[in-house]
Amino acid sequence: MKQILNHARIVLADRVIENGALQIDIETGLIAAIHEQPLTEGENLASALLLPGLVEIHTDNLEKHLMPRNGVLWPALPAVITHDAQCVAAGITTVLDALSVGDLEGDSVRLDTLHSAFAAINQGMDEDALRADHLFHLRCELAYPGLLAKLEPLIAHPAVKLVSVMDHTPGQRQYRDLEQYKKYYGKKKVSWNQDTFLAAVEERKAKQAQYAGRHKQAVVELAQARGIALASHDDTEEAHIAEALRDGVAISEFPTTLEAAAAARRHGLATVMGAPNVVRGGSHSGNVAALELARHDLLDILSSDYVPASLLHAAWLLHAQAGWSLPRAVAAVSLNPARAVGLADRGSIAVGQRADLVAMTARGDVPLVQKVWNAGLRVF
C-alpha cells in the first residue's frame, strides 16, 4: 500500500524539486519513489516545502518539563510526553535526549532526574506513547566525583548513540571569563559574594585536578568499546582540538571561538552550534556567533539545545541570511547530524530512507510546520 504526497517542493540532498510527488510504502515506512512531476492522485501539499524529518542530537529541553518551576519535580513520563510533543511540533522526528551524567552544582535537577528520565523515555518508547524516535546522548561531566558510578549502568543501552566529554570548571573553555561565569550562575539564583565565589571556583578547580583526567580516559574507553560516537564540548583553542583527536572524538560541540572551529575543520571533526545562537544573533554567554562560523564555512550541524522550535528556524535563517542553499541548510539539521551519530537510515529524502518528513511553509523569516510524518505515519 502506498501513500502519495503530491504538489510538493521536495528538498533533496543536492537540489529542490519544485513541483513533484513522493510515494511512501505504508507497510515498511520507507520512501518508495520520488517523482519530478505531480501525479494525478494523492494528498495535495499545495506547494509546501517537503523536508526530511529533523534530527536533534543534543537537546536539554526535557529538563524544563522535569522541573517546570524551581524546586518542583514533575512526574517523569508526563514530562517526557510533553517534551516529545514539542519536538514533533517543531519538525523533529529523531531526538537524542541529552542527559547530563553529573553536575558541578550540588542542588541539581540533572542529578535528581537522571535515572528517572532515562527510564521514562524508555517506557514511553516501549509503550508507543511517543511520536518521535528517541535515542540517548550521555553528557559526561568529567569533574563530577560520582560520574563513573552513574554512567556505567546507562552506557550499555543500545539506544545510546552519542557520548560527550564536558568540563564546566570555571576558568577555561566556555567559562574562561570568570566574571561571565559568575554572571551566568547569578541568573540561576546562585548567591555568591566575592569571597564565596572565589572559594567555589577553587573548589571546582580542585575537583577537576582530582577527577577530570582519569574520568575522561575511562569514558573514552567505555564509548569506544561500544562503538558509540564521541563529542568534545566547548572547545576554545587549537590545543583542545588536538586533545579531542587523541581521544578519538569525531564531533566538536559548541566551539567557543573561530580558532577552535577552524582547527576542527582542518582535522575533519564535525562542528555543532546551537540553533538558538543563530536565531538570537549570537551566543548567550559571549562566545563566537554561529552565523559567523556559517559564513566562514565552519558549521556542519545545528542543535536546538534548549528550544526545539529553534532548529528549523535556524536552518531557515542560514538559507535566508548566510547565503546557504536550501539543501545545505536543511542538511545541517537532518542528514549531517544523522550521519555523525551513525544513523544511515534517515536524514534525507531518498528512495529506501525512512519516510521521516516535514511539510512547512514560511512567513518571512519564520518557518511554519504544517505536517510531520515519522516512518510514514502522520504524527502532527
UniProtKB/TrEMBL annotation:
Residues 202-360 form the Amidohydrolase-related domain. It is an enzyme of class 3 (hydrolase). Its EC number is 3.6.1.63. Keywords: Hydrolase. One of its GO terms (biological process) is organic phosphonate catabolic process. One of its GO terms (molecular function) is hydrolase activity, acting on carbon-nitrogen (but not peptide) bonds. Gene3D superfamilies: Metal-dependent hydrolases, Urease, subunit C, domain 1. Pfam families: Amidohydro_1. InterPro entries: Amidohydro-rel, Metal-dep_hydrolase_composite, Metal_Hydrolase, Metallo-dep_Hydrolase, PhnM. PANTHER family: ALPHA-D-RIBOSE 1-METHYLPHOSPHONATE 5-TRIPHOSPHATE DIPHOSPHATASE. This is Alpha-D-ribose 1-methylphosphonate 5-triphosphate diphosphatase. The lineage of its organism: Bacteria, Pseudomonadati, Pseudomonadota, Betaproteobacteria, Neisseriales.
